[in-house]
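Comment thread on ticket #2218

A.B. wrote:
> Attaching the input chain for the structure job we discussed in standup.
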Amino acid sequence: MSDRPNRMDGLDKAAVDRAEAKDFSLGGKPMRPRDAATLILLDRSGDQVRVLMGRRHHKHAFMPGRFVFPGGRTDPADSRIPVASGLHPDEERRLIGTGSRATAARARAVAMSAIRETYEEAGLLIGEKGAFSTAAKDWQGFVEHGVCPSLSGLRYIARAVTPPRRVRRFDTRFLAAWRDDVAVELPDGGPTHELEELVWLPIPEAKETEVPLITCTILDDLEARLKVDPDLAPGAPVPFYAMRRNRFERTLI
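C.D. wrote:
> Ran it. Output below, let me know if you need it in another format.
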């Protein structure tokens, strides 16, 4: 994978600035990226793998009208929510990463926030049917529908950090799960209504929609991985996109 041509190869800082100017306005002071998580939900029931995309509401200040995966900021409290099963050990190790902030609790919070956001934005509850109880306000949908969250089916796909000097900066982990991992699908979508249009698209078609540049790049990565690893085996190397020496670079972690 590391030798494969990629949409981000050769892009300098000016190119990234132009491509994302409408979504990440430039700011003055340095900002630390906030942890965030995104879930790429995959459906292999037909002759092509399809991916779930949602169009952000046109009234949103951030990426209005763009097609995105469900996702958002990580809440550290999500690490304390009970689960039916935890992350696969190989996935957990990669998601923990390295450095002073690399902990199992942080990795679990990131993974859980991807599941929570997928419920809130798309009305899809990932886990196992059965008794579930928590006092956490953001997880009452799982309590109401009798779904205990499960992390065992999640696969780490990519990581991307918003370049410096942006008003909004995120350290985003892109995770994937299969539609088979969804215990309940709510017909009217999620309670936040942040995504006003939900569609299942073959990956080549998804790349042709109005998606952010980094989303298109990660769809390229996912498409290439599925060709050699159609079941998304745990523990695979993960592409990491970040600005280094004034260039947006891709490395494997």
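A.B. wrote:
> Thanks. Noting for the ticket: The chain has a mean pLDDT of 87.
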